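Below is a concrete protein record.
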Amino acid sequence: MKQLTFLGALLLLLGCTQNHLAGNPPPGITLTTDKSSYHSGEPIHFKLRNNSGAGMIVGYRCGSFLEFSYQKKEQGEWQGILDFDYPLCPTTRKEIATGTALSDSLSTDMFNAKGVFRLVLGFNPKKQADVTRRIYSNEFKIE
């Protein structure tokens, strides 16, 4: 009886972990910036390409800002993931279909610092809404 109770509790616990962070994104999804070095106040142009064979769901803040986070490299190590100060408004979910690319820009002023950074984008594979994955851009410097 104890074994059945333990097995039931384990199954319940595993079933309740709906949204989890999975390893690397599928091959074919890339996030790149147009340059490796920027000056303060300069726009960072980026391109998100989805050639993974499946759609991906991303968040848009206020319906118009792709909802990124970022990391700063200090002493050769990537630090924790930081959020940008987006306007207070709801996030909407949009699909980036396979075989498409999205280009946009953001200002270096959003980082409020100089140093080496990379963009971080969380997304859900279209057919795995309970799985969150991350894609990281190339590193770039803000001087």
Q: What stands out?
A: The chain has a mean pLDDT of 83. The first strand starts at residue 20 and ends at 21. Helices lie at 2-15. The chain has one domain: 20-142.
